Amino acid sequence: MNQANRRAGQTTRTLTELALLTAVVLVMASTPLGYLRVGPLTMSLLTVPVAIGAMLAGPEGGAWLGFVFGMTSFVNAVNGTGGLTAFAFQENPLACFLTCVATRVLCGLGCALLYRTAAKLLPERPKLACALGALSAPVLNTLLFMSCLLGFFYGMEQIQNLIDTFGVTNPLALAAAMVGLQGLIETVACTAVATAVTVPLRKLLQRS
């Protein structure tokens, strides 16, 4: 009975955490912290709550928060405020959905799995494990999103215009030119904030 009550309590706590982090994602998505247009792409710090949720609630939580993140991106594509994804939606709605949503689900899931692996390999260094987990979220988000965007839409007029603008000759060089400084800012910010939040929370919640 005690074990059942403990499990029920853990489930309730996890659902509460996910509800709060879902609200954070939705609120951030309506502010520049969620989506800030920088050049041809949009800078986003929504990987922060995704990383926190992935490390606190595991793969299911990470995948769910990634889904919420992705849906806000897809909605922006549909209503025309999503930058390149808005053009991508007009070109191929299904491929746009996969680019906006599926990549973010995989981002949250991958972040949780990588964190668990780091935590098992570094049992005496929980802060480092959290930092590695936090780092994986923006890195996975960028790699997965850009791979789908250029894989599905490399021939799109707006992408071809960027190739001319940056003077590059292949998708890898274009991705590097498009991400640039904003990708570094996203990565540093997410790693720092998600680590700073997750480390004390896991200690408070007595999680490994």
TrEMBL record:
The source's domain of life comes to: Bacteria
- Which InterPro entries would you find in this protein's record? ECF_trnsprt_substrate-spec
Keywords tagged on the record: Membrane, Transmembrane, Transmembrane helix
Pfam families in alphabetical order = ECF_trnsprt (PF12822)
The molecular function GO annotations come to: transmembrane transporter activity
Instruction: Give TM segment ranges.
Output: 41-57, 64-89, 95-116, 128-154
Q: What is this protein's name?
A: ECF transporter S component
**Organism of this sequence:** Candidatus Gemmiger excrementipullorum
